[in-house]
Automatic annotation (TrEMBL):
This is DNA polymerase I. It comes from the Bacteria. It holds the Pfam family DNA_pol_A. It comes from Candidatus Syntrophocurvum alkaliphilum. The lineage of its organism: Bacteria, Bacillati, Bacillota, Clostridia, Eubacteriales. Belongs to the DNA polymerase type-A family. Single-chain monomer with multiple functions.
């Protein structure tokens, strides 16, 4: 009789290898490689959740020397040593398993398969069912009524369950006959010889006929095929040796009890430390929910409810100018213009107060208006911009912010996932708190602040308090303002695109000789490369590649290709922008309100989401038309202010290259100058093609491009591209020196920095893996340049906003698109505002070269003319 216990046996070596090769090389800031362990845990968590075992054990190979190598010296001799990036991960995995309280076993002279085979047999005798998790097909011989095998196939997501019927379905023989088949066909991966010339098909046929090796050799005369008989006869010893090597040992002398492997709660404290060190943030977030609070002082937090306005007034009267309070807002959604406020939590002198909003939000939140708007009540908050925008909907201005802990963590280390307060608390305070415990979150904000601010370098404090926190307020105003979007224009464009897509579709079907799903790469591949017989440019694991680069190469080879490309282009514009934007127009404002992600990128650049207004198409006419829908309100105008080549000017400043500096100071076109230098022609002889190539080189250098990348961008050979880069660096020796210096600085200090001392940590500069190190070098070259450009435009935004507020103008910043700012301006303020913008941007930061700004004006974002 089977018990209700279920034992999971995991082949540790097999799964770790599988994960390592399935995922790209991942590593933490210390340069410790983690992809194998990460992939292992991903599979482990999913399978445990799916199978719900009561007992778990992991088996490892201990070393290469086993009883099999003593029996056959060439056993597994063809296997190379694991890569340097994988070897340390075996110990990492053991450390994780200890923290998970999952027992692992390794025995000298035996393999993981033998341990699994022996334990599964012990379990069987005790009426315990087993499930084996492995990527090694040898384990199929262990399948029985009480043993199943979960076989990993491709990557870390494709897993197949084998029971007796599944083994018979695939191999046509019961599981115990798998070793007989392996004896005949051998196994090249393990260097098991088998019988030369006998493959799986023949082996299966023989075992189905004779049942086992002994019967084959006792009845060789009944084997059909003279050649096969000869091979079997000549390799009898190899066949029996191969069976011996392939058979999993099931009677090892293991002093174990199945209940030793009983599943239990992890050692959360230890596991959290390991996950933090390895930077497994997704696993940490899951751990939060499972573990609850691991800090005893958080388990008993009394919350005082503010039930009436008098309660709030009483609280405010107790607050002195020396007090520092923390705030936490619980909402049902992450967009401040669309969410509903559920409750507000205030931590004051280690006591938590809460205000449950309910349906009477306008009434209840007004009780706290004096508190929120008081400049002399110092407040800590995580993501103050979110709260600023949210409160603005109720006519409340958020003032008195002493620090935003989200921005504080971002300045401290831009690679931490900082938007989640629970994740940040876990990272820095080693306390696990879920978002479902807001009283626990709010009480830890001040601890988080004290820990991080204490050791923050002075330069970074300046960046935090003089740039990022003030900018957060400016960005909040921009989010509140939003931008007017004309829905009728979008509807018209959508209808036109639908007609165009129908025409493209009709013509594609006509040229293809029938209808099919144009959006299906598989169906499209069949049409192009089988039905129409076009040249196959590239294949993928799943079939023909129909990517844009393939279709571009085939553009002139069949009339159908331009229609497919147009269909894809228009379809994407319609779904991603034209239709999606209509859904995001706020019902109360008639405007679209993006969220500016201030604490996301490692370079300091802002990004925009829901919707991404930094990505509205501009290169092709169909895309640019969408900008027609972005308009100013009546009697107002949109002003666009764009920095000219700010990244290259930042490069000139940082590298101090004399030629670059002279070029910008004299107002010489930098791309023409570069073309003249690298192609050895007079400036007056530089044509548009040479300038285009030089432009690719200029920006390629900024982004740390390789000769391969430049070759792809310019259409020249890699050899020619390499020559371009060398010519460039010879022409601008200061840039070459900068490239050497910044990498050395990064290796020595572990980070690189911008003009405002914003840091990006790059431990990979000291990585042993050359590919990883090369990527880090590109980041080291690019970050000070792109990051300095980001710093400068942030300073410009602050100056513009301050000047508009000081002069009490109605003009408003709306959008930042990297090097470009968009403002909405009333007609009567155009002259004054354009002067403010130009002066602020060109004098935002003192570079060794001038900053230049071009201004354009119009009633919408598409029809804009140069402002002079």
């Amino acid at each position: 009789m089977m018990s209700d216990k279920k034992l999971m046996l995991i082949d540790g070596n097999s799964l770790l290898y599988r994960a390592f090769y399935a995922l790209p090389l991942l590593h933490n800031r210390e340069g410790i490689y983690t992809n194998g362990v990460y992939g292992f845990l991903t599979m482990y968590n999913r399978i445990v959740e799916q199978e719900k075992p009561t007992h778990i054990v992991v088996a490892f190979d201990m070393d290469k020397k086993t009883f099999r190598t003593e029996r056959f010296v060439d056993y597994k001799a063809n296997r190379s040593a694991p890569p340097d990036e994988l070897t340390p991960q075996f110990q990492l995995l053991r450390d994780v398993l200890k923290a998970l309280k999952v027992k692992y076993i390794e025995v000298p002279g035996f393999e993981a398969d033998d341990i699994i085979g022996t334990i599964s047999k012990i379990a069987e005798t005790q009426g315990v069912s087993s499930i084996i998790v492995t990527g090694d097909g040898d384990n199929l011989q262990l399948v029985s009524d009480s043993v199943k095998v979960l076989m990993t196939k491709k990557g870390i997501t494709d897993i197949q369950l084998y029971d007796i019927n599944k083994v018979i379905e695939k191999w046509e023989v019961p599981p115990e006959k798998m070793i007989e088949i392996k004896a005949l066909m051998g196994d090249s991966s393990d260097n098991i010889p088998g019988v030369p010339g006998v493959g799986a098909k023949t082996a299966i046929k023989l075992i189905k006929q004779f049942n086992k090796l002994e019967n084959i050799y006792e009845n060789l005369d009944q084997v059909s095929g003279k050649k096969l008989k000869e091979r079997l006869a000549e390799n009898r010893d190899k066949a029996f040796l191969s069976r011996e090597l392939a058979e999993i040992v099931r009677d090892m002398d293991l002093d174990i009890e199945i209940d030793e492997f009983q599943k239990s709660e992890p050692d959360y404290e230890n596991l959290i430390q390991i996950y933090k060190r390895l930077e497994f943030n997704n696993f940490l977030a899951t751990l939060n929910k499972k573990a609850g609070s691991t800090a005893k002082e958080l388990e008993k937090i009394d919350v005082i409810e503010l039930e009436c306005e008098e309660d709030v007034e009483k609280l405010i009267k107790q607050i002195s100018k020396d007090d520092l309070l923390s705030l936490y807002f619980k909402t049902d959604y992450h967009h401040p213009m669309w969410c509903n406020l559920k409750s507000i939590y205030i931590e004051f002198r280690k006591q938590v107060y809460s205000l449950n909003i309910g349906e009477k939000i306008n009434y209840k939140i007004s009780w706290l208006k004096p508190f929120f708007e008081a400049k002399d009540i110092k407040k800590l908050i995580h993501n103050q911009k979110f709260v600023q925008v949210l409160l603005s909907r109720y006519g409340i201005q958020l003032r008195g912010i002493e620090c935003d802990t989200m921005l504080l963590t971002y300045i401290n280390d831009s690679q931490i996932q900082n938007e989640s307060l629970s994740n940040v608390i876990l990272q820095y305070l080693n306390v696990t708190v879920t978002e479902d415990n807001p009283e626990c979150l709010v009480i830890k904000i001040q601890d988080l602040y004290q820990v991080l601010i204490k050791d923050l370098p002075q330069d970074l404090k300046y960046l935090l308090y003089n740039v990022e926190i003030p900018l957060s307020n400016t960005l909040g105003k921009m989010e509140i303002a939003g931008i007017k979007v004309n829905k009728k224009i979008l509807e018209t464009i959508s209808e036109e695109f639908s007609i165009r897509l129908s025409k493209d579709e009709e013509r594609i079907y006509e040229l293809a000789g029938g209808s099919f799903n144009i959006n299906s790469p598989k169906q499209l591949g069949k049409v192009l490369f089988e039905d129409l017989g076009l040249r196959v440019v590239k294949k993928t694991k799943t079939g023909y590649s129909t990517g844009a680069e393939v279709l571009e190469e085939l553009y002139d080879e069949h009339e159908i290709i331009p229609y497919i490309l147009d269909y894809r282009h228009v379809s994407k514009l319609k779904s991603t922008y034209v239709d999606a934007l209509q859904e995001l127009i706020h019902v109360d404002t008639g405007r679209v309100h993006t969220i500016f992600k201030q604490a996301l990128t490692t370079t300091g650049r802002l990004s925009s989401v829901e919707p991404n207004l930094q990505n509205i198409p501009i290169k092709m006419e169909e895309g640019r038309r969408i900008r027609n829908a972005f308009t100013a309100k009546d009697d107002w105008y949109l002003i666009s202010a764009d920095y000219s080549q700010i990244d290259l000017r930042a490069l000139a400043h940082i590298s101090e290259d004399a030629t670059l500096i002279e070029t910008f100071k004299k107002g010489i076109d930098i791309h023409t100058r570069t073309a003249s230098e690298i192609f050895n022609v007079d400036i007056s002889d530089v044509n548009s093609d040479l300038r285009r190539r030089a432009k690719a080189v200029n920006f390629g250098i900024v982004y740390g491009i390789s000769d391969f990348g430049l070759s792809r961008d310019t259409g020249v050979s890699r050899k020619e591209a390499k020559r371009y880069i060398e010519e460039y660096l010879d022409s601008y020796p200061g840039v070459r020196q900068y490239m050497d210096n910044i990498v050395e600085f990064g290796k020595k200090h572990g980070y690189v920095e911008t003009v405002l001392k914003r840091r990006r940590y790059l431990p990979d500069l000291n990585a042993k893996n050359k590919m990883v190190q090369s990527f880090a070098k590109r980041m080291a070259l690019n970050t000070p340049i792109q990051g300095s450009s980001a710093d400068i435009i942030k300073l410009a935004m602050l100056k513009i906003n301050d000047e508009i507020e000081t002069r009490k103008l109605k003009s408003q910043l709306l959008i930042q698109v990297h090097d470009d700012l968009l403002l909405e301006v009333p007609k009567e303020e155009i002259e004054e505002t354009t002067a403010i913008v130009k002066e602020a941007m060109e004098n935002a930061y003192s570079l060794k070269v001038p900053l230049e700004v071009s201004l354009n004006i119009g009633r919408n974002w598409y029809e804009m003319e140069e402002w002079k």
